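Internal tracking record. Fields below are filled automatically when a chain is submitted to the structure queue. Please do not edit lines marked as system-generated. If the sequence contains nonstandard residues, flag them in the REMARKS field before resubmitting.
Queue: standard
Priority: normal
Entity type: single polypeptide chain
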Amino acid sequence: MLWYYTIASLFSDVLGYILKRQGIQRGLKGNIYILVEFFFVSFFYKQHLLKKATLFYTILSAFTLTFAIITLCQPGSVNEFNTYGTSIFSFVYIVYGIAGMYVLLREQKVLYLERSLLFWANVAFILYASGNFLIML
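SYSTEM-GENERATED OUTPUT FOLLOWS
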C-alpha cells in the first residue's frame, strides 16, 4: 500500500509542476492530495494496527475526513491550501505512529527491531508528521 502512496505523491508533484508552469493555482490539487494521502496512510495502519477495531477506524476516518472537507468548503477557500485539515491529518499520523510503536513493543514479534517494516514506517511517519504539523499549524 505504501507504493501507491509513493506513486500518488509523484503524480501530485508532477501535476503541481505542470500547473505552476502554466500559471494555474495549485491549492485544489494540494487539498485533493492530502485526502488521498490520508486514505493511503490510514489503510496502511489499519492493516497493521487496527485489525479488529474496524468500527474505531471507520469513526476516526469519517470524523477526520468530515473536518477536512468542512474546512475546505468554507467560502473562498476551495482554491487555497487547507492548512487546518493538513495539521489535523498530521496529528492523526503522529497518533498512528505512536500506536504502531506500542504494538511493536507489546507484541514483540520481531527479534531485531531494525528489520521491521512497521518500525521504519512509524519512524518515517512520526518525523514527517511532526514537522508537517508544526509548519501547517
